[in-house]
Automatic annotation (TrEMBL):
Organism, scientific name: Niabella ginsengisoli
Name of this chain's protein: Glucosamine-6-phosphate deaminase
Stretches of the chain forming a coiled coil according to its record: none
Length: 133
């Protein structure tokens, strides 16, 4: 995708690392690791999956980790958080109702295919969320 590898962060949060489909509940370590990463990056925008009915149940847990982390950072008075936006996106499992969309990003047909391929190569997405072409 052209993103410098120094700007890609994989958290491998403790709640996720069970080795099974069922994950652990969100814990303090998950939230603190998320706080640490957000403070390191100081993003202007944070994107979380907003389709909380995902088959694996991880989207809501990840969202709660990010939301808790952002709330702690704000409560601690970090200045950068005042210019940080949390955006939710939806994808293969659930789409936004048209009246709930606050921002849309137009994509060319080539970009859509590239996105589909990117989703498909993610191991957990191989249950044909998108038809193969």
């Amino acid at each position: 995708m052209g993103i410098d590898s120094n700007n890609i962060h994989f958290q491998n949060l403790p709640f996720y690392e069970t080795g099974t489909i069922e994950k652990n509940p969100l814990g303090e370590a998950d939230i603190q690791l998320t706080v640490d990463l957000l403070r390191k990056v100081k993003p202007h925008q944070v994107f979380c999956a907003g389709d909380f009915a995902d088959p694996h149940g991880t989207h809501l847990v990840c969202f709660n980790a990010v939301l808790n982390a952002l709330q702690r950072i704000k409560a601690d008075g970090d200045e950068w958080i005042n210019d940080c936006w949390l955006w939710l996106y939806k994808g293969a499992w659930q789409e936004w109702d048209i009246e709930d969309i606050e921002m849309a990003i137009p994509m060319s047909p080539a970009q859509v295919l590239k996105k589909r391929f990117g989703v498909f190569i993610h191991q957990s997405q191989k249950d044909c969320a998108f038809p193969r072409q």
